[in-house]
Amino acid sequence: MRKIFFLIAAGLFFMSQDGMCLQPDFDLAKVLNARPAGQEQVFDYAGIISDVKEYTAKYLTKIRENYGIEVLIVTVPGLSGQGAIEELAVDLFEKWQIGGKLNGRGVFILLADTEKAVKLEGRKEMEDVFTDAFCGGAADLQLKPNFLSGQVGMGLVAIM
Fold first, then answer.
1. Spatial distance between the Cα atoms of 91 and 148, rounded to a whole number of angstroms
2. Largest CA distance in the chain
3. What is the mean pLDDT of residues 108-124?
4. H/E element holding 146?
5. How many whole angstroms separate alpha carbon 24 and alpha carbon 26?
6. What is the 8-class DSSP label of residue 23?
7. Rounded CA gap, 21 and 152, in Å?
8. CA separation for the pair 113, 100 (Å, rounded)
9. For labeling, which of 30, 70, 72, 102 is most exposed (least CB within 10 Å)?
């Protein structure tokens, strides 16, 4: 009996080390309080865009290099009581300084998995192209329908 208990405990330990179970709870406030270091542009905390993450990251790098626009995509498991997705998007823009190193030329896509909420936002410096109407329309007509049908990757490709 002790051997069986030991084998089960050892198995659970190794599985948790591989991220297969017993993962720590996602702490939205902690993760989003400060932008992670590096040049990464896709932050898939919800694990919902792994199928297009590499392609998307390459495309966003090209946008930055060719047009001087920083585009970030962030997915979160849920809003975790942080308010509406619009509020979280504003907080992220300010805390992460999206587009700050490019004279304010920043665009941001936020997806909350549990609520199936989306937000596409451009900084004030980008309002000549990324107006509220344009961002809302693109999110409502391209991103959200694909997200709701389980094809969030397709929605990101369509929106880009």
1. 25
2. 70
3. 92
4. helix 144-148
5. 6
6. P
7. 24
8. 27
9. 30
pLDDT of residue 25: 67
Q: Are 108 and 71 in contact (CB under 8 A)?
A: yes
How many C-beta atoms lie closer than 10 Å to residue 8's C-beta? 10
Q: How far apart are CA 23 and CA 81, in angstroms?
A: 20
Match 């961002």 to its residue by tokens: 135
The angle that helices 152-159 and 53-67 make with each other, rounded to 10 degrees, is 20
Give mean pLDDT, residues 2-11. Answer: 38
What is the pTM for the complete model shown? 0.80
| Residue 119 exposure: Cα atoms within 13 Å on the Cβ side | 21
Phi/psi at 50 (5° precision):
-60, -30
| Residue 138 CB partners (closer than 8 Å, separation 6+) | 120, 159
* Nearest one of 140, 84, 159 to 115, comparing CA atoms: 84
Which residues make beta-bridge pairs with 112? 76, 117
